[in-house]
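Collaboration report, partner site 2.

Our partner group contributed sequences for two proteins of shared interest, and the home lab folded both. The records are reproduced in the order in which they were received, starting with the first partner submission.
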Amino acid sequence: MNGVLAAGTYRCRDVSAAVSAAVDAGVEWIDIDTAPNYVQGKAEVSLRPVLDRHPRIGISTKVGFVPATDRQAAISAGALLGSQGDQGHCLSRPYIAWQLALSRARLGRVPELVFVHNPEHGAVDRGEVLQSLTSAFEEMESAAHAGLIRGYGVATWTGLSSGLFTVSDLVSLARQVGGRRHHLHAVQTPVSLVRLGVVAAGLEGAGPLYQAREAGLHVFASAPLGGGDVLGAMTAELVRFVDPSATPAQAALLVALSAPAVSRVLLSASTPAHWADALGAAAREPLSPEHLRKVIDVLGT
């Protein structure tokens, strides 16, 4: 299997219960996708007891968005100045440093990865987003050298698919800021049955997945079920075409799990039954490149 299932907390109403269900279901390696703007800023706090019980769980969190629950505290601390954060997003070095400290305090440990979250947010052009990323990477490299994080990445919803920036751009910036031994370790982008363009490009030796593989970066596939929308489109005919013996959720997950270069597939599942079904997908043989091409030919990109 190319990808490994990991737990994400996006849209989870009870983070502790959802992650506990993942661990109890037998997930051997789980990367917790937390971010201060999820669950009204309480995702990391809710996760702390689970992490204390399972210290080997890997953690990724995010910086960039300004949750309403933290805005005044950030202003009082001098991390947000003037109109910074008015649009709910800020990648200034002081704000990133403040968020990193807050995450460590809430999680009770140093995160393995911290993603720069949606750097395309509010950007008007490519030059602006690359300048913002350069500043963010400078703060991340500083934090990594100080032992405050172990590595960083970029999590994007549309930045890569729109061409606003590429994985090659990110690697070039990381080398510019951090040298050959930079701490850029991963990218996160949507991969699913309704986001097949990135898979098609990867199969042809192009695009974000291919560039990440060439650069030695981990790829975290987000929204493999499209926020639940994919399941509504999983007709019996489509499930049979992907894998005749799979459930609808397993068939959908198989596409993301089998995509080239994908390291981890982030899934927000809340119950033991959901995790058992998902793990059934992870236990299956991955779809071959030829089969993936047929799926893409049928559904389009």
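Second partner submission, folded after the first:
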Amino acid sequence: MRFRIERDVLMEAVTWGAKSLPTRSPVPVLGGLMLDAGQGRLRISGFDYEASAKIEVPAETADAGQVLVLGRRLLDICRVLPDAVVACSVEGTRFTVEAGGTRFGLSTLPREEYPALPGLPPSRGTVDAACFAAAVAQVAIAAGRDESLPVLTGIQMRLDGGYMTLAASDRYRYAVRTVSWKPETADTDVAEIVVPGRRLAEISRSLAKAGIIRIGLSGPGDSGAGLIAFEGDGMHTTVRLLDGRLPRYDTLFALDGPAVAVTDREALAEAVRRVSVVAEPNSPVRLEFSARGTVLLQAGYADDVASQQVAATLGGADELAVAFNPAYLLEALQSFDASQVRFELLGSGRRTLLSAAPQAEGADGEDHRHLLMSVRQLS
């Protein structure tokens, strides 16, 4: 096996394949990347039974063949290679990588022990890659990190007609974003699945410049049931779905007679960032909305305190005070594109719904909502 390839092309391909590799695995071959060279192309793939990644790129192939090497070691090598054409070959049980006078040798892994990659499930439709990546980023911040509750670490996808709704929740916040997509057929059944959040965020970022992403989904009777696939720009990946469903957000988002406040998103975010400097870990930032046209932010205790006023309108109450985890509030504000954000407020210790203010700059088509649970304050 011998081939030559541009350094940046190899780097991109190895980076994509390595996304499916486990951080650590008791099975050594699952830490490997399969390199398959032949007919003017190089195909690189990785698989750990939970996710697979595959990419095909152009390469000048002298001798076709396959080799399995440690993926993360190869990725480390690619990062330090000189900017030159890379020559790769297999010499006995060693895979060599050479560029610009620098030469590396890697031991190979037994190819016969490497599992076959799962087949791609049937295509369900396509979505704009950049729009999809932005939407995933908006909801991913609300996904949980507690692996003992796997479903809460996921992002729920609902495919219904020409719309895709993404949702995530860690029980303290709940983010939802709806985007347009093009199903393969008009009579496609509604699908509701949960995809591992970390993997979906990585995939959407990597495919953000692909133009169009094709999404495949296995049905109950399909081989490889429980898989979702993403294809774009010569790359494809499969991910095993999570069991379970998130709590229904339609009832949680229906607030009874809330007060409504509107303020400049960037100004409020900067104020939260500023006053929370004095806040102790897990201490909230307090927002006092007033019908006089301001919101007063306060954080800290005793002599270590900070406050700032920001312009805001309030309707439905003369004044109303709520408090939030400052990190959660800041992440929620930063997830919006609109210049102004709208708060639907029930009061201390109750739900607060954030959305783009109607008619605000950048709010066109932003069907994004973020629910936060306010912290109950002692009087």
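Feedback sent to the partner group on the second submission included the following. The helical segments are 7-18, 71-80, 129-140, 197-206, 249-253, 265-275, 326-334. The two ends are 74 Å apart (CA to CA).
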